[in-house]
Amino acid sequence: MYDVRWHAAGTGAARALEVHAADHLGVPARAVTSGRLCPRCGSSAHGRPWLRAGGAALHVSLSRSGPHLVTAVADGPVGVDVESVAAVARGWDAALVLSAGETADDDLARARAWSRKEAVLKRRGTGLATPMTEVSLDREQWHDLAAPAGHVAAVSWAGPAAPAP
């Protein structure tokens, strides 16, 4: 099961993850530590976020688009993504996003495809190092999330099915 939370504009990503996880686990925020780790180069300046609380690891993901920040915490791998519909429309290239048999006929459908696939790739732990065309959404677990106007968001998780948020 996963838990998703939107944060106020200006909230730092690390702080948002720490507070979200502390609330989720029912522990004080000071008991939570977090950071980033790039699986390719080992850098702590970028890469997948990690979090520990009371000595235990918790799976986390975050995404930001403009002033909007969303985090997800879960007992198993999780990925979350938020995208601006206009930004996806400006950079859209179906050959870089859609796998065989997939279609996206308007800007909203294109942004949803992008957001869903990026959430899946974050959950897998590869991010955009894996081409989006290798993700077939009909074989993945994901839910669209309610998102701010002009944006779309999705979450992907590993494990048992979760109810729609």
Automatic annotation (TrEMBL):
Please tell me whether the keyword Hydrolase is annotated for this protein. Answer: no
UniProt GO molecular function: transferase activity
Q: Which residues form the 4'-phosphopantetheinyl transferase domain?
A: 77-143
User: Which InterPro entries is this protein grouped with?
Assistant: 4-PPantetheinyl_Trfase_dom, 4-PPantetheinyl_Trfase_dom_sf
Instruction: Report the Gene3D superfamilies cross-referenced here.
Output: 4'-phosphopantetheinyl transferase domain (3.90.470.20)
- Alphabetically list the UniProt keywords: Transferase
Q: What is this protein called?
A: 4'-phosphopantetheinyl transferase superfamily protein
